[in-house]
Amino acid sequence: MKPADSSAHIDTPFMMQNLKNIADITAENGKLYALNKDGSLYVSDYPWVYGSFTNFSPLQEDVMLGEIGCMRAGAGNYDYFVRTDGSIFSLMSFFYEGYNSNAYAFIFPHEGEVEHGKNNVIAWPPLPEDIPEITVLSEGGKYECLIYYELEGVENVKAVSSDPYTVFLSKEDGTLYYWNSDRVKYHDKAFVLTHPDTLREQCNGEFVEIRVADILDIDDAASGCPQIISIKSGKENTMFLTDDGQVFISKYVTYDTADVEYGLWQVANPGRDLQTDTYYDMALKELTFQKLELTDIQSIWTNGENCFCAVDSEGGYYRIVIEDNQIAQTYLGLLPEL
User: Fold this and answer.
1) Could you give the residue ranges of the DSSP H alpha helices within 153-312?
2) Gap between the Cα atoms of 247 and 297, Å rounded
């Protein structure tokens, strides 16, 4: 972490105030969640007060958080929590007016077919009271609030993570899914409203199953497929760890280019035509996966950007940097003994 008034890193451990009886904690990209042993979930008020971490508040009690078994602060703005029964909910900071609004994004995924309607099409500018699926937990300003969203129809989840473009779900039966929407396809142009006639953005899509055996190039019918036990998402890539020590990553690659007409964010004045524009030769993206040449890996982590690390059973430490889908892997030797 970096202090607010210095470029130097803090290397000396210090006590985090106002947090006791903590069972689990997750932090990334200016967000920190702490789970108390009694089941209470605390969230930090950001920006953090570096060196003190005093601004923690419990989420309101009328939201049915349930017994949390897994939680992950996402690399985007989407934080996911898996209950011990395999159901899942999401928390996110929701900006519902202004150019930097993220209301168009993949915050309302449903499993299976969903009819287009008010529940999954967001008008501009969207207001929290216009979106029945969400619960406003707290308001941080005129145009910002922390919201709760239950992922309906998604069950038996074991591990979860999200990058700024999609969410990954690993289920108890070993299957892996990701949410495929326009957010993935128009990866390089986050503010494309692909329905310019209504100035609306469809937030629905579908969960796509990925065959882990194909990524690892194994015959799962003969030996069974390894189970995913850890998922860590960075700015563009996500790393996956299986129970037999193998590692693979996700990548967004261009498969075609096209001219895309889109609606502008500005709300048209009464009596005037809606405003549109066109991106020419825009790159269209798809999600692919690549196995890394690492074996016997026991744990993985990321800084939330483009740097990952992996540690094997002997304490060997690997640093993996991924930029523009180019992978630079370095072995840094054994970790020091404690």
Assistant:
1) 182-185, 212-216, 220-223
2) 7
